[in-house]
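Q&A log
Question type: sequence-to-structure
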Amino acid sequence: MKIKTAVFEISAQTLATSPRWTLPEFAFIGRSNVGKSSLINLLTENNRLAKASDAPGKTKLINFFRVNANWCLVDFPGYGYAKVAKEQRADFNEAVADFIEERENLRHLFVLIDSRLTPQAIDLEFVRWVVTAATPYSLVFTKTDKQSHSATQSNIALFRKAIGEFVPEQPPFFATSSTIRSGRDEILDFIEANLKKAKAG
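Response status: OK
Response body:
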């Protein structure tokens, strides 16, 4: 997929205040400081589209970016430090939880994981919750340039093994680096295939 245009449309605090359109949406979420803004800027080839920061939790609202005029990239706030069990989902982010569970035109959720780390409880619990929400999702392992290829592959394997205890089947996954620009084509091809499949159906 070639990105011709990528523009910020609107920010929303809740599902109810989100835009009322039929554009297919692809959302990105991850623990604070996982490199989400950098990945969004890489995908859109616009270093100023999403605001990257070293300070965790900079994204507070649900941000919508219209891409190529025919689909929307949704930037969720990081899921911070709270557990995301259903009875505690307000501590995670109730607005985002509502969006993931109820948004009809949300096609796919990309869950970002820091590839430098062994499986973290908060990431595992979030994936467990996403499975209960029955939302199509993928894993995106970020910052792969920060360590050796073997270390990255080892951590990816450990994470996939850990979620294997509760996921019905393994989700697709991508390995990315905004520094060396890896993983961009694979994610965009995945989105393009999803769009074509929906159009054909």
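Response note: The chain has one domain: 6-200.
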